[in-house]
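Chain X:
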Amino acid sequence: MSTIVPATDLPAAEFTLADVTVESIEARVQSITASLDAARDTIAALAPKDRTVESTLLALHAALDAAAVDQVFATFPSMVHADADVRSASAAAKTTLKQAFDAAYADARVFAALEAVEAEVRNRNDTVLSRLYDQTMALHRANGLAIADPDQCADYTKTRGEIAHLEQKYTQTINEDTTTLDFNGDALRGCSDRYLSGLDRTGDGMYVVTTKAPDYLAVMQTCAVLATRKAMYTAYNARCKANLAVLADMVAARQKAANLAGYASHAHYRLSFNMAKSPDQLAFLDDLAVKLQPRREADMAQLQALKDADVDAPHGESVQPWDIAYYVAVLKKTRYAIDDDVIAQYFPLERVLNATLAIYATMFDLEFVAAENMPKWHADVRAYTVYRGSTKELVGHFYLDLHPRPGKYGHQCVVPLMPATLCPDGTRTLPIAANIGNMTKATPGRPALLRFSEARTFFHECGHVMHCLLTQSDHALHAWSWSVNPYPGGVEIDFLELPSQMLENWLYDAQVLAQMTSHVDTGAALPGAEQKTLAALRRVNGGYAYTRQLFMSLYDLAIHAPGFAEGDQDTIIAKLASTWADLQRSVNGTEMIDGTWPYAAWYHPPPGTMPGSYSYLYSEVASHDCFPEVMRRAGPQGSLDPAVSREYAEKILVPGATQSGDAMLRNYLGRELSDVPFLHHVLGDDE
């Protein structure tokens, strides 16, 4: 449940960006770097007789944990702050702090001290402690200590710093993009009056359409004017041209660093930390791409028939990329009697938000309290304090920052602001998360109505919030995190999406949809027939959708494969384009149009976890295997049986990274993972 109580009755979250300035960011970076350096020096100075688990391994992580808690005030403003100078300083801070954390895991003196306590670690028979030790040593080796030659090691460290700078530069260029297009009313024919009424207007009455997700999807799915859709598609995929050179340099630097560390490629290096372990384990992606071609061809044939019947479409013209979302919407209306704009009237944002929290509260024994006392960085932001429902124990806090604005991070994600850690004095740092979205916003006289895809995304992202809040860890390395932060931590990247992907299944349950929906005018829940149709629509156009996901995953692997980064910058830029075009054509059956470079405004390449785009499919294999287990174990309450959801939480969410993803899945399933349910979902008939 979600309630509002007086601010005086709520604990403070101890998180604020109110006093953040360029100067405060720079000072905090210096302080964090100095504290990490001091911890390394202290451990290095220990006499052999004084080297213990506490004085080495745990002392190192005490410093790392404190730095992980402190760094957010320097790095998070890059994603949300109103001041461009602050965002720029914050982006630079993330690069510097990434190097500082890497250095903390790359000190030969500390590594030697840690080697000396291995026997003591093993003798304690503590599996979590042993995992912490093994991961710490692996990070030291990955950060260059496995390189014997000193000059080569120095070159490796320098190159890693260059990579961090390029990654942040690439991401910040996307965040700062403000591409818009102006259209008159005729050019937006088909778009709803409700949508148009929320757009800004120019002095001469033109509608200003941004390339942020709510506007882009609305136009691509509902605008009947082909020329407008093409213009929108072209502008969207021609953003951030400056990132072409950045991406080329990033790919080259990653390849160089991987080779210096003894790996065949950056793909081999990164995957060694994941459940997949090596590119060889991802051969199923190529196989799946072949198997999906009949489904993709059938999907495109359906859309082609709709375009052929469209009197406004050029006679005999094949379906183009800017047509697909539009004719999928037409297909839903004509074959399934589903109109996305009509369905959106059942998903007012406030209803979806409150119902999502109520459902997760029931599932995981939580209570969410709207925290008016927590400072917020923007008027759009909402804050919540979270308690254990049955015991009223304080669990943590989270923020919702759901709407687009200039300079803000332009995608959807959850940022772990505070990791769950155990402090040396025995107190705990409670987790704090921020759900950063770019969803439809209410305007005066116009409530925010979410397309079902937006409601699903919100439910999914809140699943990450639950994972962050429920993780029980003593150290930042084992807390819920990912590469949005400069410190290493969290589950394997190809496990990260599993919990939220699995939780999406709840959204297709009739009980859940009844709670989630309330017609904006009548208050009625979504009728049962439409509920069933939404479930059926999960696989509509699945051949196209999955081959699109596949070609982008294969692209990510290809540009990080051995030999790709050979040549100068111009050569690599040309290969970035030709590789995307070839894979889009061969796997997805569509063409990359001239004058566009979609990979330059794609959020996935920059994170240090890449290549990781495959991880969505890899995680989905597990999610489709887990959900049938939930339903098999559930009682009469079905998916809302709290006993089964809490078992899932205890075995999949609570451990965080104290266990490997493989171990958690075996523990939950009671067997090895099977891909049969996933293949049935992906390759089965649409009916």
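Chain Y:
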Amino acid sequence: MTRAMGKRVHALAVSGLFGAAALGAMAGAQAQAGTAGASLAQPAANVLAASVPARITNEAGSVHYIVTFADAAAQRYSAKAVSDPRFGADHDGRVMRLLHEVEAAHRIAATHAYSHTLQGFAAYLTVQQVEALRRDPRIKAVAANVPIESSASAVWSDVAVGASTLPWGVQAVGGSSTSNGGATVYVVDSGIGNHPDVAVSARWNAPGACAIGTYPHSTFVAGIIAARNDTVGVTGVNAGVKLVSLAYGDNQCAAQSKTLANAIAALDEAKRRIRIGGRVAVVNLSSNFEMPTATTPGTPLAPAFMQSVRSLIKPDPATGYPGAFFVQSAGNKYKDACQWSFNDRLPSDGAMVVGAIDNNGQPVQPLNGEGGFNAGDPRFGPEPGSNFGPCVDAWAPGKRIVSTWMNGTAPTYISSSGTSWAAPHVAALAARLIETTPTLRTPAEVENAVRARLVSGGALTQGQPLRSASLTGAAYSARPTVEFKIGSLPSGPTPPVFGDAPTPALVGSGKFFLRYDAIGAQSCDVRSYVDGNLVEQKLGQAPVFTWGELTRGVGLHRWDVDCRAANGATNSASASARVVKAAPAPVVVFSIDGVPTVKGVRRFIPTTQAFTLSYAAAGASSCNVLAYRTAPDGWLGPWFESPNQPAAYSWTGLRLTVATHRWRVECKTSNPSYPIISAEQEIDGY
């Protein structure tokens, strides 16, 4: 074993840098860079169709830009270290000398310096300074900085181990092991929280960023990688592995800190630390952005970021940099991953893109017209499903994953979904391989070691075999993922009974929507029951079927679907609806001397007889009473009116005159089917 091989292993996790929305707009920012002046506008044909994120400006109104130097611009300067109190003495001396000359020539003050992954800087610039820099032959690109946003029975199930939980995702990749201390994982994100299940050995934060942000995305990633193997909480894939938190920003903690400039600064810091470690690293990027198919000349913002990441991957023997194995999430758009992630597509390039599977071993995709990640990040809504295609190199757990979380400053655990959680499973697995296999010296060797442990359970993605990561390489049989969509309830393998609270009651001939959908199934058997009695059976049906709007009579209706995959594995789902008898319509009842009268029947009472007339309206909130009697001319006219009376009332000791008397009661109810109910009673006095 060489001396270099005996040094500590470093694994880098870059998580939550860019949400799809923010980085989908990044390419648009390229087209908009410097548009504060009309002279900077680019031809419309070169502008990408993307939304433009908000500008990052200072109090003077200058816009924040990222500037990259031309490839050979710094070569003529001395490499001797330069100490700059703003950026320290760890940067390349040639780049720093060039930076100082550019600052002096253009009267600017850099806020960030880059020399490890990129050669360049970031600064607030006026329109005139942007124009001058773009004319400077030492400058390769000038691009506006952008804000960042973060994103039934089964093959595996969460298992309780005492008071702790072994998540199904950890089991799927080969189970948990305790780190031997030979690896360090760098998590580049908003900053890992102070969670008792996750140990952080060191922290760093980008300029103006908080060391611990308010968004716990990085805490969740850290738990998947390294949660302690103890008696509480959850257990990580590489339990207890050393973690270093590199925080690039959180706008809720520090305004305008969550930016690409800070992200590149964090990557620069990571590469510097990895070079000192002297051993191949693992880089996990749990974020995605839309890869541009065209760029605006002079403003390659997304390519600049990709160049920074590629610099992390590539070993540099001249400087002793060992290189880094790069792992990225495939994205949650249910689209071609080549448009949303690294797309070099080389078998041993030191990079792998990871899609998400569920606990049946099936790819996460839309079900019953709903997003596959419907149990998604608690701060965001549903997303369609895992991206797919030839750029996805491996698949790993990403749906309903349990990991560490922060509720403010209080540590907790939640279940969440997304390809952000698939990538760290593979990153942690790679770190374990590096820890236990000292002969893995290059990113390509690490990638080949991971690829050697990809297994197929029979599931397909877009018609091609899906291969998921497993440290042991143990075989498994993927099962169909089957779910029902009934009424307004979310899609699921066993939705609650529709018609029971809190869903709206199904009364009389209840009407509701019904559909099932199955991923990975060849055929399904469907059976329907009423009050437990089989009433219909259809065998060998399609993996998806829609009944549409159903009308059913009174009773408990249940549908069971059993589906089979090509490998013979089966799975099932069930949905139920309860239809109840319609309640009788509320009525107003008149009574004479306590005896209910018959609706529409006129009564005759002597004028010498005293009696009691009453009404009662069950379920009413208030009633209006209108009374009429015949005048001497024989016409029936108003007698009296009593608005806002109670739902029940009695007139006692009544004596009539020789005339026709009519009482009409109109009452309000809370029943939407019968908002107003009424009744009339006519009595002749003689």
